[in-house]
Sequence to fold (685 residues):
Amino acid sequence: MPDTHRTQKELLNEITRLKSRIEQLEQDTPADRDDHADWPRKYRFFESFINELIEPLIVIDTNYKVKYANKAAYQISGESFFDKEEDIPCHKLLFNSDTRCDERGQSCLLQKVMQDGRHATIDYTIPLANGEEIVYEILGSPICGPDGNLVGIVSTIRDVTQQRYEQKMLENDHDFLEMRVQEKMGELIDLNLALRQEIKQRQETEQKLRWAKEQAELLYQLSPCAIFTVDSDRYVTSWNKKTEEITGYSHDEIKGRKCFIFCSQPCMLLSDEIEKPIIRHECTLRTKDGRKLYILKSSDFLRDPNGKVIGGIESFEDITQLKQMDMMLRTERDKIQGMIAATKQGLHILNSNYEIEFQNDVLKNIFGDQIGAKCYKVYKQRDEPCPNCRMHNVIKNNQIEHADDIIFKGRHYSQSYAPFKDTDGQTKCLVLLRDITVEKANRVKTMRTAQLASIGELAAGVAHEINNPINGIINYAQLIMDDTEPNDPRNVLLARLISEGERVADIVSKLLAFARQSEDAKDPFGKIDIKSVLEDSFSLFEHQFLKDGIIAHIYFPEGIPPLRVHPHQLQQVFVNLLSNARHALNDRYKGSDPNKILEIKTSLVQTEKASQVKIIFTDHGTGIDKEIINMVFNPFFSTKKPGEGTGLGLSISQGIIQSFQGQMSLESEAGEYTRVTIELPVQME
Fold:
């Protein structure tokens, strides 16, 4: 391509030179022309040479007019302008266009040469109807007149469609190759960067691994736990400082030797029968100086990157002192538990949230397992804390306090609260519950005995005071009756007066007998007839029953044997039951009623062990509610209105029957009946 351009330039220069010479010859004088006699011949030869050129050649003045064109130039547009004599615009000749190139948006060679004043080259593209294009390369050189001014240009036109196509292909191939080279270069650069990054990361990883290894080795050596490793044959491969400290064997003494030098037990680590890992297994070892230590051991396999077992690692800690302390604590605990059990007192530990944290077996038997329960729920059956909480007062004042007695399942318990500081730093409360049921009952019995003694003394005094006037009345009535005639109507009144006086005397006699219970202390359990005791007791209420309209049915069959009981104490029981029955019947029936009935049945019952006399008192009075029926034998508990009862009758009566080796029970249905059953054993000689 460069050589072709150079040839065209040389040709244009020659043409320009010849053209100038021709114009000069035309302007010469005839004399001058004679000096150039061979010019026409040379001109014709030159013109013939120009016309035979394959490439178009034209000469254009500054007005875009074609001043000269060879044959090839007239064939570009496909139109026949060869025979036209007038000047044709260059754009008409070449491109058959009436519009200048610059007006159509194309580059104008004439304007470019005129502007630059030197050779210029442009590409002119002509689109074809079939969508293809023809590309012409137009090369122009300036033509100057004698005065040196530009008068036109001479240009050659060459079809470079194929060359441009090939050039474009080459450029595309070059661009493609350049792009591929750039891509490969980029890949190489990226690969290089990645390689450098990987090398850097490996270096950093190696540095971290070295650091981690150093740290691991440091931790391994400074670990508070003894750690060592073995290979698959149980040879020790590593041994840290804590292991040296516990066993007494140094690293140099133990490395390369089998581990059973200090552990004589069968190997658990390499045993297939024991699941791995082994966590905190308790065992023993022997130190270098022969001491036996208790240890907690954990162990597992060591594996290579492929998962193959190549050995094992074990860690352990010395728990010998902990075992000794635990044994001491267990001993002290057993002592404390023994002391607590010996006192037979219940023990609770409460925290400030009212929760029971501990209870001994005594309270577990009483309340059941109440760990975590609220104290006010267990002690008082409340749903919220007590208004004046003893536990909080004790914790606040840091003083021991004694609280009111509580009743649970018919038993009485005294409460004592003592503060203490627990191991968690919190101040808590120790609650001691002591069963005082028997003690309370004994106090009641003592008080009742004193009351009965006072009543006995009073009854004896009253009886003696009544007995003398009654005897005088009876005697005087008898004397008057003896002095009257048998048919005297006054005898009936005197006989009635004597009968009533004798009845009063009999009642006073029974009252004196009731008051003389202490006089029978030498033989309180002599054999007595139950029927007589029951009749004596009933006689005290017979007049009141008639007045109240109470119907009494007493069933006492023959063959009831005498019993070894205290007669006056048994009479006290009967009197109490008759009094309760009268009270219940009068509460239900305000006057006389056919259903106002009291039944007393006595029978002899044969059991597997012995014979028993059963006495049943049944009244059809108000009855007792189910909610309180279990409390009727509690001391000072009464269903009567305030001032009508002391709440001691049934409690004392039950104690008396139990002292006779008997039993006393009660059943009732509110609004229907109350039934009290007394069972007394028949004691054989």
In short: The longest helix spans residues 161-222. The two ends are 160 Å apart (CA to CA). Residues 1-6, 517-523 have pLDDT under 50 and may be disordered.
